From TrEMBL:
Protein name per UniProt: GHMP kinase N-terminal domain-containing protein
Any one GO molecular-function label of the UniProt entry: ATP binding
Source organism, top-level taxon: Bacteria
Segment forming the signal sequence: none
InterPro entries: GHMP_kinase_C_sf, Ribosomal_Su5_D2-typ_SF, Ribsml_uS5_D2-typ_fold_subgr
């Protein structure tokens, strides 16, 4: 098998993750995620020269090499297939804010996986099922990996569970990712709208995971937390589910309390929005806050005056995609 192509352009979406099982992004125990309308733009070409990665975001530019996540994911696939490695020239236009919980690392890894398959001409060894498994293995979050690869809204469920049955099942308290291996692929009839609140503050995912795992989790609240994915699934299917009532009991107070020293403004934003009857949650492993639906302008203006970027995005039916290839 040889390289069939030498240049491609792709776009990779952001993901909103964490509106599934309690602390899903924190504890890698499953949950729900969807791809949303913020796009990184990536141009990749093979070269005989050493690998270079130029990352641009606004006025910021950084040069990387073989340590880059996109390059490492690309090389992982090429090694798995048993093909010779090539030098890469990558231009990565970043729109997804870094270290904010909106999937910037997931996007970089997905770009490498898809580029490898594209350059090899979509061989049968890299069928969709294999690509999804690779994404799950490398990204360590089944729902987010499925969302960025497939689009739509993805629920990671215990084996054999429907979204309705999941609401009755106890959640895994970390370290039980193998239970969450089935994916429910939801396709909303109407676009699912989120309002994102993005701070200037970056946060280390390691610090968040450490804080989350130090929280005292009330198992009764954890079981209630399972209703979140089911509630969203019901809403997406145009039922009359009371999403806000489910949302308000989703996060164990101990978890938010544990995260407060690491991301105080984020936790306080979630609490303020919920007090304003907005179903809000921490978006993934970062400092951003997401709210389901449109939020009134007064709340958005107040957040902006406090230094937050705020705006609406919609879920997208398709995930990452190669736009051109030759």
């Amino acid at each position: 098998m040889r390289y069939q192509h030498s240049r491609l352009n792709m776009r990779i979406p952001a993901t909103v993750n964490g509106f599934g099982v309690l602390g899903s992004a924190m504890l890698s125990s499953g949950g729900a995620a969807c791809a949303v309308s913020i796009w990184d733009r990536v141009r990749i070409a093979t070269t005989i020269a050493p690998t270079t990665v130029t990352i641009r975001q606004g006025e910021y530019t950084r040069i990387e090499g073989d340590e880059n996540l996109t390059v490492r994911a690309f090389r992982h696939v090429i090694d798995m297939i048993g093909q010779p490695q090539a030098g890469l020239e990558i231009h990565y236009g970043r729109a997804i804010p870094a270290y904010r919980g909106l999937g910037d690392s997931i996007a970089q890894i997905t770009a490498g996986l898809m580029a490898a398959r594209g350059f090899l001409g979509n061989p049968p060894e890299l069928a969709d099922a294999t690509m999804h498994q690779l994404a799950w293995d490398l990204l360590d979050n089944v729902a987010a990996a499925s969302a960025i690869m497939r689009g739509g809204v993805q629920l990671a469920l215990p084996r054999g569970a429907t979204p309705e049955e999941q609401a009755l099942l106890p959640a895994a308290n970390g370290g039980a990712r193998e239970r969450w291996i089935e994916i429910a692929d939801l396709r909303p009839v109407q676009p699912l709208v989120f309002t994102l609140f993005i701070p200037d503050t970056e946060v280390s995912s390691t610090d968040l995971v450490t804080a989350a795992r130090g929280a005292t989790l009330d198992l009764s609240q954890v079981e209630i937390a399972n209703t979140r994915a089911a509630a969203y699934g019901a809403k997406l299917l145009n039922s009359d589910a009371d999403v806000f009532s489910n949302m308000t009991v989703t996060d164990n107070p101990g978890l938010l309390e544990a995260l407060h020293p690491v991301i105080p403004a984020t936790v306080e934003m979630v609490q303020w929005l919920r007090q304003s009857q907005v179903p809000a949650f921490i978006a993934g492993l970062g400092s951003s806050v997401a709210a389901l639906g449109k939020v009134n302008k007064e709340i958005i203006f107040a957040a902006q005056n406090a230094g937050w970027k705020a705006g609406r995005v919609t879920h997208i039916p398709n995930g990452a995609e190669i736009v051109t290839i030759d």
